[in-house]
Specification:
With 141 residues, the protein is of the alpha+beta class. It contains 5 helices and 6 strands, in the order E-E-E-E-H-H-H-E-E-H-H. The mean pLDDT is 85.
Amino acid sequence: MNAPQHRLSQIDIEAGVATCEKCGPEAPIVLHQARDRWYCKVGRYARTTPRVVTPATRHRYALHNKGMTKADYDALLAQQGGVCAICQGLCSNGRRLAVDHDHQTGQVRGLLCQRCNTALGLMRDRSELLLRAVTYLDPTA
């Protein structure tokens, strides 16, 4: 026999609850606006299987999104001497270097540690903001 589903009965819209086959009575409900239909809030947002994302999976996904292969990544890493293109260091948290790319063209620029990648993102990849930051930090530069 199949496991119970999140099917509703005895819906009390004013109280925002219903009897759910799986959760039982007094289950919170939510309205799906586009379909004009009520769902069990637990069942609507619960995953049936736990989501496991390993660092290797995250790395493959990042490479795929940038149009790179593992061989491309390894070649770029070797070209940079295994370190961040900006600070010449390794990732302080032990993660792989991030693939940095131009958000306008999608062109890969290099590999960055998490801190440098975050810093560029916070500056919205705008060189004039980075130059102002350099002037702010060192007015004689």
